[in-house]
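From the thread on structure requests for the teaching lab: each student submitted one protein with a one-line request. Submission from student K.M.:

"Model DNA-binding transcriptional regulator YafY from Paenibacillus xylanexedens, tokens only."
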Amino acid sequence: MKLERLLAIVVLLINRGRVQAKDLADMFEVSIRTIYRDIDTLGQAGIPVVTYQGASGGIGLAEGYRLDRNVLTDKDLASIVTALRSVSTSHANAARELLVEKLSSIVPQSKNDDFQANTNRFIVDYSTWTHPEALKIKLELIEQGMDQLRPVTFTYCSAEGTQTHRTVDPHTIVLKKHSWYLYAFCHERNQFRMFKLVRMQNVTLANEHFERKVINPQDRPWQQEWSRPDNQARLTLKFHARVRHIAEEWFGIENVMPDGTGYYISQVAFPEDSWLYGFILGFGADVEVLEPQHIRDEICRIAEQIVQNYIPPTQT
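Reply posted by the TA:
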């Protein structure tokens, strides 16, 4: 709808400063001419849209312009409350809970039942099945470090089992594939790194302060580092039919193809480390690494070691 597009354009201009007309046209799948008509409509409605010329030009809003809270619909408020409650399942926060109360109070009493129903339609529970308190304490300390611009110190155990002491400037908490991570600037490595919270021990806050560096979380810089071509191993995996559904959950239905013999083939890419070996072994005898040969050999070596653990000692 045109009204929804107009509101979305205003929100984008508030958040991004200046946007090219072509980018807006591509985003909303309309012509550039339509975008300029939308801009004229916004101007006639009293919204101070400014067109900047030149190489660094684009469409923007007059500095200081903000939307009135009344622009939020009841569904918008319900979506915000749902998101806030979802985050609170992993670590409750008094300020966050108060914000939920504030947003709920905006809704007229006559619409309260519908509002509550909308907030309960979609629930995301980020809490863990076991030891939720340990995760909660870490998240609270890290969040406090981000609020107060204080470095966080901890002992970190890598996937290979190596323990190191780290001091980092916390910037972003990331939930990815059911696990919580901290994206932070590491003093020891002098660069941004990802740290898995379950591998962090003895988390404390340092007394000094740091200056937050400029990052754009929307670009997901941690994903770019993880998916670098030189950081990836390309594998061809052969799955038994009885674990086909698990392979589809991990790799997508379109990437689990029958090979004509009752088995299924997937071609995937992952960073090669101990996590990858454990992931493959987690399928037991229902998976076979076809390529590359060196990972196939490594899985075989680990499997032979596992067998040795279960061979009873020779009776003398």
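TA comment: The mean pLDDT is 82. Residues 114 and 281 are 48 Å apart (CA to CA).
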